[in-house]
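Recall that a protein's primary structure is simply its ordered list of amino acids. Everything else, from secondary elements to tertiary packing, is in principle encoded there. The following example makes that idea concrete.
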Amino acid sequence: MRPKTETKTVQQSEEAKKPYMVFSSGPVRATVWENETEKDGKLIKYLTVTVVKNYYVETEKVWKHTSSFSKRDIASLKAVTDQLFRFLYLNETEDESGTY
């Protein structure tokens, strides 16, 4: 049985949020996003991450992405998450070290 895949279409607009940082290896891409929230009247910035695998659908002539990974993607997934770990922990601030 094939794993369930999730396909998303990204709509570009002037208000579209731009990535804070992007890491990739092979078909795997990790995007770091900067977010803001208010806590106790104070504006707090924090980072979140999305990880996807890009693939091309020849019959539709379109690129898509999924959050499912196969055995052959594991090396690329590890390379990307290693890069993420180094980036996120080297750039961690006191506010981000807490848990929400």
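The chain is about 15% helix and 40% strand. The beta strands are 21-25, 28-39, 42-57, 62-66.
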